Amino acid sequence: MTEIVKTIEKIAIEIYEAIKTKDTGKVNSQNKSGDVQVKLDVISDEIVEKYLLKVSSVKEIMSEEKEKPVLKSGGKYLVAYDPLDGSSLIDVDLSVGSIFGIYEGGYSGSEIKAAVYVVYGPRVEMVVARDVVELFRLNEKTNEFEFIKELKLKNKGKVLAPGGTQAKWFDFHKKMIDSLFKEGYRLRYSGGMVPDLHQILLKEGGLFSYPATIDKKEGKLRKLFEVFPFAYVYKKAGGGAIDGYKDLLSLDCKDYHETTPCFFGSEYEIKKVLETYKDKKL
Ligand code: AHM
Ligand code: MG
User: Span 28-38, mean pLDDT?
Assistant: First the structure.
């Protein structure tokens, strides 16, 4: 596992360099989820593949940008990753990130063994969740990631990151978000799940939601590359991660690119979501 984390450090440094120096334009293709790819999606995917396929403990890799996994010989870990999450924000110079879920045995919520994400912001930060959740920061002078602190969520936060198209929200979802704002929560939403979830984690509480909507009952965010890794991080940090009804890590995954509604937050806000959703049918 340490070998994988060390490799992700090298990947992060190279992707960050690409973000700073390469063309931020689009390519003429879509990925499996139908998203228009930017050149940096493709470049980042190539960087991750190049490094991870050399790691002896890795058995297989699966990218948000690929149709199916790439296998190698030996190893036991399956690494599912989103090489450049939030890439639609690349041209407006907002923070983006990379997300990695490390699985053993298969790709389901119960088989995730560790999660790592990297935020490319004014600073490059990496969060590693194993038994505990740890924050590291890139020292650009030495090109080393330095340990900063352990991350823990408090029982309740002050910020909300409510995703999805509001015109398509279910009424009960809208009422829940409105009532949280009436309690005094402030809006903190950039449209990149990595910086949005990073903010809530570092501010020690709050709620990120990407719900089922009238037109998309299965939400937008992908289980393997985005949802399970962040569910692992939030649960290990003492918070919760649910699909509205159930623990996200209790879900299976039948298709590599399957999506699910998702809510990540501290205990108080997750309880509110459960109370709101419990008797609602989508
Ligand atoms: P991406 O992997 O194509 O970048 O999509 C994931 C991103 C998340 O970072 C973010 O929370 C969500 O898509 C926002 O989507 P939208 O703007 O479509 O609501
Ligand atoms: Mg993504």
Answer: 75
Q: Where are the alpha helices (DSSP H) in 112-159?
A: none
Q: How far is the CA of 98 from the centre of ligand 1 (A)?
A: 12
173 lies in some domain: yes
Is the domain of 81 the same as that of 176? no
The tokens for 280 are 């609602």
How much is the pTM? 0.96
CA distance 215 to 178: 21
What are the tokens at 45? 């995917």
Print the domain residue range for 59: 2-150
The minimum-distance atom of ligand 1 relative to the CA of 196 is 11
Classify 50 as helix, strand or coil. helix
Query: Based on the domain organization, do 91 and 187 belong to the same domain?
Result: no
Over the stretch 51-96, which tens digit does the pLDDT of each residue have? 999 999 999 999 999 999 999 989 999 999 999 999 889 999 999 9
Residue 112: what pLDDT? 98
Residue whose CA lies nearest to ligand 1 atom number 18: 164
82 is an active site residue: yes
CB-defined site of ligand 1, < 6 Å? 35, 64, 82, 85-88, 163-164, 191-193, 210, 220
The one-letter code for the residue type at 82 is D
Mean pLDDT of the chain: 96
Q: Return the number of other C-beta atoms located less than 10 Å from residue 67's C-beta.
A: 10
List, for residues 14-24, the tens digit of each pLDDT value: 999 999 998 88
**262-265 vs 207-210, strand pairing mode:** antiparallel
Q: In whole angstroms, how large is the CA radius of gyration of the chain?
A: 18
